[in-house]
Amino acid sequence: MALTNDGQLFTWGQNSRGQLGLGKGKSSSLSPELLESLCGVPLAQISAGGDHSFALSLSGAVFGWGRNSAGQLGLGHTEDIYVPTCVNNLNQKKTISISCGEEHTATLSKGGTVFTFGSGRYGQLGHNSLNDELRPRVVNELWGVNVSQITCGRNHTLALVKSSNKIYSFGCGEQGQLGNGQNTNQCIPLPVELHSAANNIHTIESIVAGGNHSFALCSKTTSESILEPNQRRGILTLGDNMINRWVSNCESKQWRTFKKEIKRVFSSPSCINGSFIVKSCDRHYQTSTHVSGLDMDSVRAAFDRLAEEERVLLEVKKVVKNDLLPCLGLNIVGIEALRVFIILPELLRVLKIQGHETKLRESYASAILRLDPWMQAVLENFWSELPETFLKTVKEHFHTKTAEMITAVTFDFRQIQAMRIQLRESAQVLQLLYKASCKNQRELKPEDFIIYEINDLCDKLNAIQRDINFFNCGFEWRNIDINAALAEEQQHIITLRLLSSSLCIFTLEAKYSLLKLRDMRRAINIGLRRNALLEDCFQQLMFASEQDLKGVLQVVYCENLERSNVNQSDFFYEVFKILKQELKKLDTETLKWFTVPELKFTEDRYFFFGLLCGLAFNNNCVVNMVFPLAMFKKLLDIRPSLDDFTELNPDVGRSLQYLLNYSDDDVENMCMTYTISCNNNEVELEPDEPGKAVTSLNKGVFVDAYVDYVLNKSVEQEFNEFKKGFYKVCDRNLVSLFKPEELREVMLGSDNYDWKVFKANTTYEDGFTAKHPTIVLFWKVFKKLSSQDKKAFLMFLTSSERVPILGMEQVKMRVRPLFNSTQDHMPKSYTCHNILDLPVYETKEILQTKLIEAIRHKRGFWDE
CB neighbours of 217 closer than 8 A, spacing ≥ 6? Predict the structure, then answer.
């Protein structure tokens, strides 16, 4: 094995047990091969044993691979390992040195603690036994003596204690390698009988264990080095002195040498990752999946200093672009290799300040997305622990660029071809940053990640689709190039779908636009009898394929073979109306909060109900029922809370909150037990302890258990069936775009009726204006309608009496004169387009009579 000063590890030789770390099935190598899986990990030391190998990082992470027949890799098993694997039992043990024997391994921690593992048949582990150890175990006999160096021979181990000038040995001594004057094995560490020359005048500097022999290097002068053994010849790292030389003398003849140094440091992720570790109080040894071990203040100071000289900064940029970024993100096994992703945004920051346009951001994003998902999760943790200013720096890089690209493709859709990859990757990195910011309470809020430019994209798409729709309906109200419009529509749809995995950037309007992007080429057709609506629906939907169900629903009634969106809306309105009516017939005292009435034609009513709700969601139709927020949280796998319980049962919910708020912390019995009444049944929340009392200490557990039982356990089977049916139709990723509150409004609509906004959004065509006498009469009549009649008018106009999730601003009525009509004609509506055709009535009374007659008219199909 060989470790270069820029942090690259090479191995060669025999690979019969995976000791080269190159992967299973890789043959032996006659020349050095780069061990790519450890690239980026700032290594401090390497050690080769019989048929196993170890590497140690600057922050104490230990990686082992190769033969493991006696547990010499310390992984808790005896299977050979063919690639470097972290020894988790040594994490945060402050390991500073490691040594391998034939079939055993020893490590030394800062402070002098020695761990051994592997074969113990000669006593070489020092545990006073001949047993093998599959995991690192402290050598108790050396505890507290402050060991300063360890070294392993073939089957023996030596430990140096410089403070007392002693060497301890243990293991095989058949050739006298233990230095105790005997040819016997030794199971515990005992002092070596040194030669008389090694007296008080001499100091033992270091020890070396060979195959069956040992050496001690002594000196008459005491070494003043305070470096750890593995840092006396370390890899190259970026320091203040090096930066100062570059910046202060970049115009000198030494520039060629400086360029080589810059290339050596900034082309190596290992050198970068080892450059800014927190050394005060040994905090870099605390590196974990949540702690990067970086000193971010020194990172910022270093790049600010580099930016003082443009020539140096541009050289760093060139090396990072050409040499560093292309190799990042591949085959990473050590979390320390992720530090570079925390460091590089500071380079992007100073380049931006200097006004240098660069594509480093795109390459940086690509490297992040090449990471294994588990490593991406660790990077999220690192980001979440960053000081606020540093996280904002990273976020701003990608937020600004993503917004710029969305604007560019909105107004020139042809650019999507060139920008597709960069746009997707930039948005995906923003999503990772959003998830990181959500892990801690921060100044960065979810709204800081929203890109409002996406609304322009949605508006442009809606306008194009409106033009196409009118063209297809024969309403050529303006000249359009239909082929160009279809091409532009397709590219904008591609852009939205491209961004759909990054929901943090979406406004509510954009989310809703995504919901409406369906493949119109796929459809499921159902033919229904009006007097057997549910039965016919069940027969045709329950056994349809998932692929068919995800298509556009097309409803045909036996009495009217025409397909239309009106039929679709009517179908959902009526099917949920029937279910509500059946639900009212049930005994409300014994109902669970999530109940579906029995259906004579099926026992799978909850699955069928979920299927219906999923179809409504997919087809942008309102579910004409009332559901609590808890249902939508459960659909999104979010645990319902006490507030959700209170929505269902306000009296009991307030009582439970009062119990939690009760300030006396010394009450051993609050006159309550873990027995509750649910749906007229007595339920023990702690079946193993019937009648368990509620106390000040366990009241929180009691409330959680109460809420969990009512909202989850009591309806577990029913809700799982409903959820199964719902997601047979719906795409989980699409549903997850919405928060629970948003999902409820998408499915149920809103009751926020702002009729002033409704009037303000109305437009007039074909001679009608806001001041036309008929229009003036219409709004006078409309204003005096009852709330119920106004909702009936909304139903008449849009086929739904509920307000869309985006509010009344989305209900844009278009009013046209109904030509060739008489005073006896009623108003007509085109619900697909929110068009009202209004006859020109002569009096207010006639208009009022005909309008009310129209909105209260029997609904054609259903109430004959």
Answer: 204, 205, 206, 207, 208
